[in-house]
Amino acid sequence: MDFALQCVAITTSAAIFGFQIDISLLTIPSLLLAPPQLMVRQWKTMFDLGKRTALTATPLSAISYACLAYRLQHKTFALAAVATVGAIPYTLIFLEGVNKKLEKMAKKASEDAKAGGGLSAEIGVGGGESAVELVKMWQARNFGRALFALTGTALGLWAALS
């Protein structure tokens, strides 16, 4: 049972790291090639898919690490749980404001597209940041968020192998 729980915890936190790094290193640079109206709509689709994945995988990994910490009385598993779940407050503090602005832009872009608007126009929501600036800011902060899953994975592996 403990081995299976270790596999779930480590694999899940590693997968979270992998998909978050992929988004920052591969997906966002591709989105930045699109006109702003299209870019924010694509960002919103990516965001919604990633949110569903993260809201399932992060608690699964953290709870698995916490169970291992309790069952095996191993503090490093407890640290892995804290590191993995630490992405949640990080997201609320550093990404939530950017998310809201980009979601508002994506909604406006979708409405404009339905009304027959063009793709090249810049869209704004106040605050002075352009869609491109906000997506780049989100990219950097998402990279920071991925480090929580990487830390959880490294600590989980360390604990499993010790």
**What is the first-to-last residue Cα distance?**
18 Å
- Poorly predicted parts: none
Share of helix, binned: over 70%
Number of helices: 5
The succession of helices and strands, N to C, reads HHHHH
Describe the sheet with the most strands: none
How large is the radius of gyration?
A: 18 Å
Shape by Cα distribution: elongated
Class by SSE composition? mainly alpha
Q: Hey, roughly how much beta strand do the residues contain? A: under 5%
Mean pLDDT: 93
> What is the tally of beta strands?
0
Question: How would you describe what is shown here?
Answer:
- The chain is mostly helical and 162 residues long.
- 85% of the residues lie in helices and 0% in strands.
- It contains 5 helices and no strands.
- The radius of gyration is 18 Å and the shape is elongated.
- It starts with a helix and ends with a helix.
- The mean pLDDT is 93.
Which key features would you list for this structure?
single chain, 162 residues, mainly alpha, 5 helices
Q: Can you describe this structure in just a few lines?
A:
With 162 residues, the protein is mainly alpha-helical. The protein is built from 5 helices and no strands. It has helices spanning 2-31, 36-72, 75-85, 87-114, 131-161.
